[in-house]
Structure formats: structure tokens, C-alpha cells
Amino acid sequence: MLIEAFAPLRVRVTSGEVRLRPGQPVWLDDADALTLLARGKVRWVNPPAASPRPIREGDLVEWRSPLFSNSQAEVLEVDDQGKHFLVHHPGTDKWVWLPTAWIVRTVKE
Asked: How far apart, in whole angstroms, are the C-alpha atoms of residue 49 and residue 58?
């Protein structure tokens, strides 16, 4: 279970001694976490959702552009950091690199 302390705390759990700090969630065995929760020393933290699958060449994506509203095209290339993708833009009839943050959905994988 993922928990976070309200104040700096050092506790003994089945796996040994653990130091807990506010703002730094830690995974603990469920039994140990429930014991700490019952004492009011920690709070349960909702684990982050799994990140969506990165886009790949060949995916058909829809994006929202500030100039052209929503558009769709096939991804031709993705940069090394996965922050931009290359498409043949249907509105301009040119090859353009767009930020992945503009992607609204993957239409076809």
C-alpha cells in the first residue's frame, strides 16, 4: 500500500526500519500500512495511474492545434524524447513536427 507520513517519522515494520517524510510516499506491506493508518500517523496515497502507451510510427492520432482545431494523421516518426511527432499535416499539406501534448486520442494503433 502506498502511504505518506503527516510529519517525519521513523517506524519499525516487518521488513525493518523505515523513515517516512511528508511529500514522499512509500510502498509498505498492507498489514504494516494498515497499522500505521489506524494510529493516525500516515495517510493513504492513491497510486498514480499507469501512463498511456507512447505513440509509435504508424499510429493514427487526433490532435488539437491552436490554429487548425482538431486534425488527424498517421504518425510518421517520433523524436527520441517522445515529445514531438512528425505527420503530413492535412491542413497545410506539409511535413510538420507537433508536440505530443496536443494529442487528444489515438484513433488507431
From this structure: 25
- Residues 30, 1: contact at Cβ < 8 Å? yes
Cβ neighbors of 19 (< 8 A, separation 6 or more) are 8, 9, 10
Handedness of CA 71, 72, 77, 80 (dihedral sign): positive
Phi, psi of 76 (to 5 degrees): -95, -30
- Please state the pTM of the whole predicted model: 0.52
Residue 30 reports pLDDT greater than 80: yes
CA distance 93 to 44: 51
Which DSSP state fits 24?
A: B
